[in-house]
Amino acid sequence: MGLNETASADRIHIGFFGMRNAGKSSVVNAVTGQNLALVSDVKGTTTDPVKKAMELLPLGPVVIIDTPGFDDEGELGTMRVAKTRQVLNYADIAVLVVDATIGMQKTDIELKELFEKKKIPYVIVYNKSDLVDEKATANEIYVSAKTGENIHELKEKIASLVSGDKNDKCIVADLIESGDTVILVIPIDSAAPKGRLILPQQQTIRDVLDAGAKAVVCRDTELKDTLDSLKNPPKLVITDSQAFGKVSKIVPENILLTSFSILFARYKGNLKGAVKAVSMLDKLKDGDKILISEGCTHHRQCGDIGTVKLPKWISGYTGKDITFEFTSGKDFPEELTEYALVVHCGGCMLTEREMQYRGRQAADNGVPMANYGMVIAHVNGILKRSLEPFPDIQL
Fold it and tell me: I need a surface site. Which of 111, 188, 358, 365 has the fewest CB within 10 A?
């Protein structure tokens, strides 16, 4: 991904929902102007959520998601409905497509109630307007995917549902000023992707540049030389969390230090809640279970941070016999009460809505949810220091 491209996780995710044969896929194709979704008269043609990252005017960068029918039947149908429910955890906007010739059905009402329960802005789209003569209310619109009637108006209505402050958030720009220097410490080891930087590193560099500051990038092995070569000390050092212990010994105490993971906890999740949650490490008992959850899926290396390093560091710090379980990608349990603690990655591959959902899910289960960076800082005895860049956060 280029530095000027919008990451999928930061795009507005628009989910199209409804019953089989309501015309979801036809409406998706009409809105996007592409044959994105397979269209057929056979019920249940869409068997898995179909995603497409694209530019959609007047919204800009979005991800369009066409979902299976919410009234799907049988064993496979139940699995497809479960995947559709999963989309509700990360969709920023919901579009409920209803067959205008039959009107709202029980399944449509259930979906509408789910949107409201999960606080997802939504619009109800009555498809096949060419076959009926009806008028819409405030959050409804009648369209015809066949003739194109009101498709432009539908796009305008979807755009009006986007929160105005969604694009105002920043990763680090509000912590620095124009002219400042920021050092980004990026270890290059066996787990680092060859020939490229990972997404949070790319995004943070871009955010530093957008603030008019200077981004100096180095490996942990060159950090001391980099600091010595600067005429003026940097305003901030941001490190990969895995190198927290080593980096904290190199960076003088008068220079602010934090990690990419902690920055992303603030950017997408609940930093204050995660800070409180990390104290659970000092209360763990033998036999407790910890869920370690990553938002992305990747090939596991022998020194993988989630499945290898974190369990080793936590076990070494607590001295307790802890059981660790792991999830990755879109998998995240709804039932969490068996866990004493959830430790989550920064969520760079997840939408803000999904990270917020996971935080609420943990809170509803009464389970604290901490963050990779904060756990690593805590076991290295530098949590307080790693939070100094955030004046509104206190231990």
Answer: 188
Which residues, in sequence order, are CB contacts of 158 under 8 Å at separation 6+?
Answer: 14, 31, 59, 93, 95, 123
Supply 21's token pair: 């044969």
Query: Does the N-terminal peptide bond of residue 58 adopt cis geometry, omega within 30 degrees of 0?
Result: yes
Distance between CA 234 and CA 274 in Å, rounded? 27
Kindly report the CA angle at 96 between 90 and 100, in degrees rounded to 5? 170
Rounded CA separation 341/375 (Å): 11
Query: 227 to each of 206, 230, 232, how far by Cα in Å?
Result: 21, 6, 9
AA letter at 86: Q
Q: How far apart are CA 315 and CA 148, in angstroms?
A: 60
Residues 231-283: tens digit of each pLDDT: 999 999 999 998 999 999 999 999 999 999 999 989 987 888 899 999 999 99
Stated pTM of the model: 0.75
Six-digit token pair at 119? 């606080």
Strands 50-56 and 60-66, bridge-based pairing = antiparallel
Q: What are the Cα distances from residue 290, in Å, to 162, 284, 330, 342?
A: 36, 10, 18, 6
Greatest mean pLDDT among 78-82, 163-167, 232-236, 343-347 lies in 232-236
For residue 241, count CB atoms less than 10 angstroms from its CB and return exposed for 0-12, middle for 13-18, buried for 19 or more.
buried
Please count the CA atoms within 13 angstroms of the CA of 327 that sit on its side-chain side: 16
Q: How far, in Å, CA of 390 to CA of 373, rounded?
A: 14
Ranked by mean pLDDT, the top range of 80-89, 101-110, 229-238 is: 229-238
Of the ranges 40-49, 94-103, 114-123, 341-350, which one carries the lowest mean pLDDT score? 40-49
- Paired residues of 239 in beta bridges: 185, 259
Q: Which residue has the tokens 């409920």?
A: 96
